[in-house]
Amino acid sequence: MKFEFFAPTVFEVPPSFRKKTKIFGMGQKNAEKLGRELSNLSANITLVIFGCAGSLREDFKPGDIFVITKLPEGSLQSVPGLREARLASSMNILKTPEQKRIFKNKTNADLVDMEMECLWKVASPEIRAKMIFIRGVIDGTADDISFLSEQGVNWKKLLSPNQLLKFLKFIFHWRQYLKKMNLVLQRIDT
C-alpha cells in the first residue's frame, strides 16, 4: 500500500518526515482547498493527514497520539494499535482552559483542531475512504496557550514571565509530540 502524508504546517511534522509530507496550510480555507485537490489522486493511495490537536479530556495528555475515528459528520477507519478519539474542528485556536471546556460541552469531542472536519466535509466519498486522520496532543485541557495566534507566537506576550513559562512548557510538549508522532508515522510507513 502506498501512503501520502499531509500536515497543516511544518511545525507539526517530525524532521524525518519533512521530505515525505506535503504542507497544506492551517485553517478551514486551506483544508477545504486540499480536499478539492485530493480528488485527482490515484486509486491505490492511502492519505495520512496528521498534526497537532488540543485535548478536551483530562486523561488525554500532551504527546499522546490518536487516530480520529469520529467527526461530527462521519466516521473514519481505525489503525490497529492506536487509541481512537472523536475530533471537532474550531475556526480559531482554543487558547484557554475555559474555551476548551465550552467547546467540549458543545461538541462532546475528545480533541480539537482547525482542519480535519473542514477537509472531511469537502472531500468526496471516494477520497474519504482513503483517509486516515492522526492527531497528537500538544496542549492539555489545563494549558493556557494565549501566547499563540493563527500567525504563530506573539513574541511580545513572552515578555511576561508567566507567559514565558507557559511557552517553555508548550515547547516541551511539542518535542514530546514530535517524538511520538515520528514513531507512529514510521510504523504506518513500513
Structure, explained:
This protein has about 190 residues and is an alpha/beta fold. The chain has a single domain, classed as Nucleoside phosphorylase domain (Rossmann fold), CATH 3.40.50.1580. The protein contains 5 helices and 10 strands. The strands form 2 sheets. The chain has a 5-stranded mixed barrel. A hairpin with a 2-residue loop joins strand 9 (about 150) and strand 10. Helix 1 (about 30-35) runs parallel beside helix 3 (about 115-120). It is globular, with a radius of gyration of 16 Å. The protein starts with a strand and ends with a helix. The mean pLDDT is about 95.
CATH architecture: 3-Layer(aba) Sandwich
- Protein structure class: alpha/beta
Radius of gyration: 16 Å
Helix content: 25-40%
Strands ordered across the widest β-sheet: 3-7-6-4-8
**CATH-assigned homologous superfamily:** Nucleoside phosphorylase domain
Per DSSP, what share of the residues sits in E-state strands of 2 or more residues? 25-35%
Sheet of most strands: 5 strands, mixed, barrel
Q: How many discrete domains?
A: 1
- Low-pLDDT residue spans: none
N-to-C terminal Cα separation, in Å? 10 Å
- Total number of strands: 10
